[in-house]
Amino acid sequence: MWCPNVDRMPGSSLKMRSSTQLALVFLFLTAPFAVAQPVPDTCVEANGLLWCYDPLSCGEACNEVCAALGGTPVADSTAWFEAQNSEAECQTISQAFGLGTDVQMANWTYACLEDSTGAHTAPGGLLGPLYCSTFAGCPDNHRTQMDQQGNACGPTNSRRSVCPCENVAPVDPPTPVPTLSHWAGIIIVMILAALGLGTLRRRRA
Question: Which of 30, 69, 124, 153 could tie 58 with a disulfide, CB 3.0–4.6 Å?
Fold first, then answer.
């Protein structure tokens, strides 16, 4: 039985290769580039949790703080407690917020975490030192209660809660920009496609 020889059909084979190359070019050019979803700049990652505060308000417990950022406090109170119940852990969180290593540790009822009382502004940041608690019941309390609760930001007697939040709404991500490896891949595939098309034109000529 006679079978067509691939060598006798260079045009068809070349067309197939060129089509494949063009498809690869299309995939490289249209594939979305991965961009990390940035969190608000009032949140930091420390000890396995995302710790946040509300820059626009003072006197809020954690349910309100996380809600202001589009999220909720972490559901696991034990994980919350164990992420801040030692001086080293509290210092890690404090340093992540740029407040240094000076922290206050005690059997606080609500302060897991809170910043210090003082002259807060809205919008504004945290006042050090941060307060962390060795009381296991603190996370459940701090969901709905805090010291100086309801006190608006002002020159005296106001403070902010620092809370472990989840499902926080990301800020608007930057425009995706291809990395060097993306550009290298795009260029290589485009060169291959150009070579294939050039060969196809020479064969037809």
Answer: 153
